[in-house]
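Suppose you are handed a protein chain with no further information: no name, no annotation, nothing but its sequence. What can you learn? This example shows the usual starting point.
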Amino acid sequence: MTERLADVSARIENIRQLGTVVNAMRGIAGARAQAARAQLAAVESYTAIIAAAIGRGLTLLGAAPRPQGRAQRPAQVLFCAEQGFAGAFSEHVLDLAAPGAGVFLLGTRGGAIAAERGLVPGWSHALPAALSGVPRLAGQVATALYARIDAGGVDQIDAVYQRWRQGAGLQTERRRLLPLDLADFPETAMRSPPLLNLPPEALLAALTADYVHAALCQAALHSFVAENEARMATMAAAHRHIGHQLQTLELTRRIVRQEEITAEIIELAAGQAANGTPPPV
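A reasonable first move is to predict its three-dimensional structure. Written in structure tokens, the prediction is:
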């Protein structure tokens, strides 16, 4: 009986230690999500400025928005999870992988899940551990995309990523990167044309490159926030489960302890009866 009580006590201690780890992971995920949100606000503002500049550039060129034709060689940039304990985060992104499309996959954990599905990306990369690495990662992705375009292997590129919305949770979004959908850049009426140091065509090409880089940074940050929010939700569920297990084990320990006390009393009474000593009243 004593050994059984020790086993229950050891399990309680192990689960309490696990609860400490779960709470630490939850706190780290929350801090990372908060830091990413702060950077995301700046990136979104920067992206909006570039979009407005592209609209003005289109006005200078006199280009009107025109519908995009059907892509013959599409590609997708999939932003999956870098680490585990994020629920079905990567699965939701991989579910939108278009058959026959070239895949640029980001996220180590997502790469492992893609391999289980038999999905082989044409290019893959790990997500940075720190937010300071997001701009460099966006540059690496853009370089790989342009190389594939130059090789004639891609004529349309979409970014697929998870986004966390307050009150709605995780939502998977698809965003066109290239070619630009000109309907997203309304031309801006200008009282007087701006002074330019570059031909409008060259200026628009440079702005497009900046816009793609900013859009990749934005998608990466949204994915970073969403992954950590998903991890926080997973850790919260684990915390509730651990609390329930502790309650059950504490009840079991009290029952076992009571059984142990009862057994000791019975043994004492039996010993006294065997010695001819009347049991205490």
